[in-house]
């Protein structure tokens, strides 16, 4: 199973609660750019697990316009300060159900970094930039392989034409 772990795009610094912080225009553009980059790599997701916080939902909504998903769930286990071991156990349980599929997780720092660390124990928790995406491949009974971690700052120089298209969406 391929697990894609994504941090939401940049969000407004303040709102009436942390859960209600929306994406900024830059956050929408970052998400758009990363989605355009991901489209040729992933035909669709078998399952998408999203934090119930507004910025994570908005990030998924942008991705959903380009990459289909068979099932989408809002998960309290994916909020910013959720227990990473419980969240990782949830991902592993889904991986057992669908060993050959694609799973997307849209969540927050620090949880996204701790999920990578939990699924790939030799690694230290990486820092995700906003809209950053990591890919991990789970091999049945053989552990996990960390494939990559990319962000808009790496992608943009090579995908400037996509970035210009994304800016027009704002």
How are the elements arranged and paired?
Layout (H helix, E strand, L loop, with lengths): L1 E6 L17 H14 L8 E4 L3 H11 L7 E3 L9 H14 L4 E6 L3 H9 L13 E7 L3 E8 L1 H4 L4 H8 L3
Parallel strand pairs: 1-4, 2-3, 2-4
Antiparallel strand pairs: 1-5, 5-6
Helix pairs in contact: 1-2, 1-6, 3-4
Provide the helix percentage. Answer: 25-40%
Indicate the CATH architecture.
3-Layer(aba) Sandwich
CATH class: Alpha Beta
Seen as an oligomer or otherwise, the chain set is single chain
What are the main properties of this structure?
170 residues; alpha/beta; Rossmann fold; six-stranded mixed beta sheet; His_PPase_superfam; SixA; Phosphohistidine phosphatase SixA; His_Pase_superF_clade-1
Short characterization:
This protein is an alpha/beta fold and 170 residues long.
Q: What does this entry look like structurally?
A:
The longest helix has 14 residues. The chain has six helices and six strands; from the N terminus they run E-H-E-H-E-H-E-H-E-E-H-H. The mean pLDDT is 91. 35% of the residues lie in helices and 20% in strands. A six-stranded mixed sheet has the order 3-2-4-1-5-6, with helices on both faces. Helix 1 packs across helix 2, helix 1 packs across helix 6 and helix 3 crosses helix 4.
